[in-house]
Specification:
heterodimer, A: mainly beta, six-stranded mixed β-sheet, five-stranded antiparallel β-sheet, 11 strands, B: mainly beta, seven-stranded mixed β-sheet, four-stranded antiparallel β-sheet, globular
């Protein structure tokens, strides 16, 4: 079982709709959760991070965390064609002292004009 | 632009050759990470440095891979005797210890082994 799982997609939504991206993780000791956006051929770009259960909003983006269910999601409101990208969920694991990020495989999002 | 730079941005090499990549982190960031990303997958952790000390290496990092961070500033990742399976995007990220643990990625070096 992969440590961080995401639906690979592709996920298509019409412009202006809400896109919902989901992620589950296996390490109950995980404490920090990140969403990165990655355009084709580019490196990951941080969108949001969340540490506490509940919702965290930043502009059109809302991250939701439920540690009991080991679930984190990202909602994108008023989706735009420029939001079309792969969205990577990352979890900060406490392996050794590294606290490296463990990534899911990403969900490819297409926003249709 | 996150402030993390990587060079070269692209590298094409023949199987069996050695290659070296460089990462310059954000200046006040004392932790530096290397990741590898293949098509359709998320980045995978390779190794990390706290200042000049290499503190952890993934089992993905075979003996052909070596990384250094002299003086705790820039870092290099060398791959010896490259294989076609080494073709990937190599990503560097940095972070300041005690911050929010948010890692900022450089633009990456795309390696193609022919």
């Amino acid at each position: 079982q992969k440590e961080v799982e995401q639906n690979s997609g592709p996920l298509s939504v019409p412009e202006g709709a809400i896109a919902s991206l989901n992620c589950t993780y296996s390490d109950r000791g995980s404490q920090s959760f990140f969403w990165y956006r990655q355009y084709s051929g580019k490196s990951p770009e941080l969108i949001m991070f969340i540490y506490s259960n509940g919702d965290k909003e930043d502009g059109r983006f809302t991250a939701q965390l439920n540690k009991a269910s080991q679930y984190v999601s990202l909602l994108i409101r008023d989706s735009q064609p420029s939001d079309s990208a792969t969205y990577l969920c990352a979890v900060n694991t406490n392996s050794g002292s590294a606290r490296q990020l463990t990534f899911g495989s990403g969900t490819q999002l297409t926003v249709l004009p | 632009d996150t402030g993390v730079s990587q060079n070269p941005r692209h590298k094409i090499t023949k199987r069996g050759q050695n290659v070296t990549f460089r990462c310059d982190p954000i200046s006040e960031h004392n932790r530096l990470y290397w990741y590898r990303q293949t098509l359709g997958q998320g980045p995978e952790f390779l190794t990390y440095f706290q200042n000049e000390a290499q503190l952890e290496k993934s089992r993905l990092l075979s003996d052909r891979f070596s990384a250094e961070r002299p003086k705790g500033s820039f870092s290099t990742l060398e791959i010896q005797r490259t294989e076609q399976g080494d073709s990937a995007m190599y990503l560097c990220a940095s972070i300041r210890t005690g911050s929010t643990d948010t890692q900022y990625f450089g633009p990456g070096t795309r390696l193609t082994v022919l």
